[in-house]
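Problem: given the chain below (338 residues), write out its structure.
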Amino acid sequence: MKRPYISLLLAAIFIGLGITGALSYSTAYSPALAGTHTLFGLTLLLIAGFHIYNNWRPLTNHTKTRRALVISITAATIIILGGYLSLPPFSQVIEFGYQLRQIEGVEEEEVTVISTRSKTLGKELLIDVRAGAYYESSPQPLFLGITITTVPQVVFWLEDDQGNYLETLYLTKSLSDSSFTQSPFDEEVIRRVEALPVWSHQRNKRSSDGLLIPDSKGAVDLDGLTAPTPTGHYQLRTRIPANKKLHLMMEINRSFDFNEFYTEDRYPDDPIYSGSGFSGQPSVIYRGIIEPNGANKQFTLEAVGHGHHSGQTGELFSDLSEITTALQLVRYVFVDLL
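Solution.
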């Protein structure tokens, strides 16, 4: 390929990376923006490989200049380790971008509406979820300046007043079709059993691989109950059985949500928690009591505990003393029985 074409194409890609990177750094998470940024990065990798192949001899000659080689390797190492380990001053740069997005916030009128069970008989339920200060993660470095920003996985379900599972009301789609996995760059794709363990154990339905979370083949009981993960405030409109006292349950969990208690090396012998490096704080469980014939038709869900850090059990741990920012994934969850 002629040099002018390569030069102009590289210039266009660098400009695209710069613009999408700056927007990702300073504005709220957008799947379209993140996807565009990733595509620019992958295209750059492809062209870089082609460039190295065509210029292998000149490049190897450059390595004979020891000072230039040492400076290049040192600079790349510092950037990679500084970003990955969140070392100063890289951590301050990342935190500043996070603060920018919090200042910008999510406009109050920007509310995604999700509807499930619309044809089911029963009472209509409106669940209003307001994104909290830590709903969106700070940018996490992958490679070559490409970052990833995550928002929580969430599920709503019903239990009877004895705590027995009844049915699911809503589940984020990437959990329902097994597209939420550990790093896509790992040779073995490992499904994220630690994401919503209390719900998955309560539901108690194993997939073909024996795990208590849906696989790519889906699950009949979840048909029509899934939707893409909301990127900000959202409302869930659904229906519940009438004339029954119920527990409305919510479980929420976000990747990279580490704190001083749940660090990447807290469980060095746990292949799920330490193996992914993504898990962070465990899922948080919220609960509210629904009495269709009672006087109280409006209430908020309250945090009642957290799940197992790597999803090995379905136990609900009531001690929230080591849970910090995970309690700020949502500002509040308001329930209105219509």
